[in-house]
Amino acid sequence: MRGTITDLLAANAGHAREFGDRFDDVQEAQHPDAVTVCCSDSRVLQDHVWGNDRPGRLFTCGNIGNRVVQESDAGPVVSGDVLYPLAHTGTEVAVVVGHTGCGAVTATYEALTDGIDEPAGIEHSVSLLTDFLEPGVETLPDGLDRAAAVNHLVEYNVDRQVEFLLESEDVPDDVTAVGVVYDFQDVYTERRGEVHVVNVDGDRDVASLREENSEVADRIRRLWAY
Questions:
Q1: Minimal CA–CA distance to 180: which of 204, 198, 201, 206?
Q2: 3-state SS of 109-151?
Q3: Nearest to 67 by CA among 112, 108, 37
Q4: Each residue's pLDDT tens digit in the chain (226 positions)?
Q5: What phi and psi values does residue 104 have, to the nearest 5 degrees?
Q6: Distance between the two ends of the chain, CA-based, in angstroms?
Q7: 99 annotated ligand-binding residue
Q8: Per the annotation, does 38 bind a ligand?
Q9: Residues pairing with 63 in the sheet
Q10: Which of 20, 44, 59, 123 could potentially form a cystine with 35 if both were Cys, beta carbons 3.0 to 4.6 Å apart?
């Protein structure tokens, strides 16, 4: 067996020793506080971002581009893995987690500007973002370099995913949808690994969000007010 697998199994043995008694209350059912929709990126430790070490606390979904959308015979719908906890476990908070330097957003930006040549599976995933991001690409501020353009579009993508949740008839009305960006590139501050709130239930205005959420005002900021 490859050494990587051996190392993973050794690490899991430590996990099992530490976590063995933490499943007592969730063996038969789960009622997570939030569903998080993260990007599939090795640099984004999806539960560890929140300091989570409690089984049952978070329902964690991951995919290319932190998408809440999937294609169906009926057209675009909220992805089943995101919708399940909102519909069946009493979860009332959905958090869309973008991140700086996102490869999926970069690929979508390139697809909309220069075109890409990727395997069919990757092209399909990117295609699920193109309709969301195309208006953003067309309205980017002038003078941005490629990295800055991508990070502006990271916010824009988070906004569009939150919007899709809010507009879906499948999502219960009492669900709060929050958009955040995880920064490990010193884009928002020099505190690498910090999560920054950019959108709450469709509100993108930093001033009003800070006023309404004063206890976390220092964690609310945006690159792009459009």
A1: 198
A2: HHHHHCCCCCCHHHHHHHHHHHHHHHHHHHCCCCCCCHHHHHH
A3: 37
A4: 689 999 999 999 999 999 999 999 999 999 999 999 999 999 999 999 999 999 999 999 999 999 999 999 989 999 999 999 999 999 999 999 999 999 999 999 999 999 888 899 999 999 999 999 999 999 999 999 999 999 999 999 999 999 999 999 999 999 999 999 999 999 999 999 999 999 999 999 999 999 999 999 999 999 999 9
A5: -70, -40
A6: 52
A7: yes
A8: no
A9: 39
A10: 59
Nearest to 161, CA basis, from 114, 109, 198 = 198
Q: Round to whole Å and give the CA distance between 156 and 110.
A: 16
pTM: 0.96
- Quick one: tokens of 104? 């999926």
Q: Is 39 helix (H, G, I), strand (E, B) or coil?
A: strand
Instruction: Please state, in angstroms and rounded to a whole number, the distance separating the CA atoms of residues 122 and 94.
Output: 25
Q: Where are the beta strands (DSSP E) in the chain?
A: 34-39, 58-63, 69-72, 75-78, 93-99, 176-183, 194-200
CA atoms of 149 and 108, how far apart (whole Å): 12
**What are residue 197's DSSP bridge partners?**
180, 220
Q: Pick from 83, 129, 82, 80: which is nearest to 103 by CA?
A: 129
* 122 close to 64: Cβ distance less than 8 angstroms: yes
> Is 152 marked as binding a ligand?
no
Report whether 180 contacts 157 (CB < 8 A).
no
Instruction: Report which of 117, 99, 108, 90 is spatially closest to residue 179, judged by C-alpha positions.
Output: 99
Burial group, residue 2, by CB count within 10 angstroms (0-12, 13-18, 19+): exposed
